[in-house]
TrEMBL record:
GO terms for molecular function: magnesium ion binding; phosphatase activity. This is Cof-type HAD-IIB family hydrolase. InterPro entries: Cof, HAD-like_sf, HAD-SF_hydro_IIB, HAD_sf. One of its GO terms (cellular component) is cytosol. Pfam families: Hydrolase_3 (PF08282). NCBIfam families: Cof-subfamily, HAD-SF-IIB.
Length: 275
């Protein structure tokens, strides 16, 4: 069955280790567009963290943000979201209280639509993330503001030393938190609603384009990509992915530093021989 929609993670998949798009990847995505095959970016990033890549690739259409918690139209970021799922307010407060009380050196921040809310803008972890994602921050005091004044939150990001992130993850597990959480890397713990997954966001896009699930192809490299790889008609893991992620895929392509996306699109004949 011919591939009709392509989904791709960004960090560790679409872009290189040095956070760059290669010319071969750009050329491959352009070739998909010429065949009217939507190429959907799927990321834990906020909308404005995805948009520059969307524009560089010449894409127009939906973007899946916060690992599926928010789907927006890249042409109308300020418009009504195509899909939005927020954390239960009490779950968000519980995470804040656990970090504040037991992990003072862990950085807590949260995302609401296209706003990144940070209690301390000078935090080294915040500055590091801003340098990577190139997104603006907005100061918000989670301690001083009562819960009723907190905006709806699509994602919480906790950053810290690996051993502290491990300990925080265990504490949230013990607390039976009404949310899902995963490490996007050893120093990052990301928290969203239990209703959120890249796979559920994929289904929304599949319905949007009126295609069959079997006509989709997805690329990923990390644990939060596993539901997407399993749900797609063809799931492709990058060579730089952990073994568990590779085991969830139908095919393993070259790494993100070796133009793995272009190589797989050629392998599955999504792209013409001379594109």
């Amino acid at each position: 069955m011919a591939i009709q929609v392509i989904f791709s993670d960004i960090d560790g998949t679409l872009i290189t280790t040095h956070h760059q798009l290669t010319e071969r990847t750009i050329h491959a995505v352009h070739a998909c567009a010429k065949q009217n095959i939507p190429f959907i970016l799927v990321s834990a990033r906020m909308p404005s963290g995805i948009l520059p890549l969307q524009q560089r690739l010449g894409l127009a259409g939906p973007m899946i943000c916060y690992s599926g918690a928010l789907i927006v139209d890249s042409v109308q970021l300020d418009g009504e979201p195509l899909q939005a799922t927020t954390l239960a307010p009490q779950a968000a407060k519980t995470v804040w209280q656990q970090v504040d009380a037991h992990f003072p050196s862990v950085s807590f921040s949260a995302y609401s639509f296209d706003r990144w809310l940070v209690p301390e803008p000078a935090d080294p972890w915040v500055l590091q993330e801003q340098a990577i994602a190139a997104t603006p921050m907005h100061r918000f005091d989670f301690l001083e503001n009562p819960l009723r004044k907190w905006p709806p939150l699509h994602k919480i990001l906790c950053m810290g030393a690996p051993e502290e992130i491990d300990a925080l993850e265990q504490r949230l597990t013990d607390a039976s938190l009404d949310a899902i959480f995963y490490k996007s890397k050893s120093t990052y713990l990301e928290i969203t609603s239990k209703q959120v997954s890249k796979a559920s966001a994929m289904q929304h896009i599949i319905d949007f384009y009126h295609v069959a699930r079997e006509q989709t192809l997805a690329f990923g490299d990390n644990y939060n990509d596993v539901p997407m790889l399993r749900y797609a008609g063809v799931g492709v893991a990058m060579a730089n992915a952990p073994m568990q992620v590779k085991g969830s895929a139908d095919y393993i392509t070259l790494s993100n530093d070796q133009d793995g996306i272009a190589a797989a699109l050629e392998r599955f004949s999504v792209l013409p021989a001379a594109y």
